[in-house]
Design brief:
Layout (H helix, E strand, L loop, with lengths): L10 H13 L23 E6 L4 E5 L5 E2 L4 H13 L20 H5 L10 H15 L2 H13 L5 E2 L1 H9 L2 H12 L7 H12 L1 E3 L1 H7 L1 H4 L13 H14 L5 H7 L4 E3 L4 E6 L3 E6 L10 H14 L5
Antiparallel strand pairs: 1-2, 1-8, 3-5, 4-5, 6-7, 7-8
The protein binds glutamine.
Glutamine binds next to loops.
Length: about 300
């Protein structure tokens, strides 16, 4: 085999090159503005981290700067519920791409209050409802897990972001109440919304999130060597990330990046190279489908330069 087909193993020059190319590219999209506090983010910021399976981390740019994790947290709440409750979750949420925006209401009525997948807001609300029922403290359970996996004891919520989102949370409230009318939410909707907004407000850096996602590259094994998920469950989450993790842009993301990924409207994206490493990139400017413009471009370049891909 020609050496050019061997995957790159030294990530440092790759990250430097990506940062240089991103810096030279104008047009970074716009920060989310439907959550007023997120609108204040500077679209010029850019960071990227790669975590190897043993916890070694490489980073470039603002890779240690905490940002609003938002929907990236949906991967972790899904993993926690599956680890505690096996497959029961799938009675209340599907595994199909939605082809609709992340906060869309339209499919829910046609499909009897069962959201298409756990990564659109409706599906994530079901997941958080189940985690709340299982633990009595969904957001606290998530925070403890992220602290343990990232090794960062200071990782926390930003209560101001949670309050900002709550004050503008009519659409998520509508989704939750609508699903409750079908019996697909088990607890009180106001409590669920509190938990969900706190969950979304997690502040974490690229390093934190790349490390925290490591179990998805280690086939379900946590940072301390204990088992969170079976090998099959880890594969299943990666599959749902690939098909649904970037909403109605999942096809384009698979085409360009070729890795399971999950974005958030804070401008972060995590991605997984199973058996090899996890990545997190952050830049707050978004495209119209809610994915970081520079983030997708950086991941696209990463898989091009390294040859790492699930394909
Ligand atoms: N907290 C955001 C919301 O519910 C998360 C959306 C996202 O990151 N795509 O609208």
């Amino acid at each position: 085999m020609s050496p050019s087909f061997q995957p790159v193993t030294d990530f440092r020059p790759v990250l430097d090159r990506i940062a240089a190319e991103v810096a030279a590219t104008p047009g970074r999209g716009r920060p989310a503005d439907y959550i007023p506090l997120l609108a204040e983010a500077d679209p010029g910021r850019f960071g990227m981290a790669v975590a190897e399976l043993d916890g070694t981390v490489y980073g470039v740019g603002d890779w240690q700067q905490p940002f609003s994790a938002q929907s990236i947290t949906k991967v972790f709440t899904l993993a926690l519920v599956l680890s505690m409750d096996g497959g029961a979750l799938w009675e209340g949420v599907g595994r199909e791409p939605s082809g609709n925006p992340f906060n869309s209401l339209v499919q829910l009525e046609y499909e009897n209050g069962i959201p298409r997948n756990p990564f659109i807001n409706a599906g994530a609300l079901v997941v958080t409802d189940r985690l709340q029922a299982l633990t009595g403290d969904a957001s606290g359970t998530l925070r403890d897990f992220l602290r343990a996996e990232s090794g960062n004891p200071d990782l926390d919520f930003d209560e101001r972001v949670a309050a900002s989102e709550s004050a503008h949370g009519d659409r998520n409230a509508a989704l939750a109440h609508f699903m409750a009318s079908y019996g697909n939410i088990t607890g009180p909707v106001p409590d669920l919304l509190d938990q969900y907004f706190r969950q979304c407000s997690v502040e974490a850096s690229c390093a934190d999130l790349a490390l925290a996602a490591g179990f998805l590259a280690r086939h379900g094994i946590r940072a301390d060597g204990s088992t969170l998920l079976t090998r099959s469950q880890a594969k299943q989450i990666n599959a749902v990330m690939l098909t649904c993790g970037t909403y109605d842009a999942a096809g384009d993301f698979a085409y360009r990046v070729g890795l399971p990924g999950k974005s958030g409207v804070g401008g972060g994206i995590i991605a997984v190279v199973p058996g090899r490493c996890t990545l997190c990139v952050w830049s707050p400017g978004l495209d119209r489908r809610g994915n970081s413009v520079a983030g997708v471009a950086a991941l696209d370049l990463f898989t091009t330069l390294t040859g790492l891909s699930v394909f």
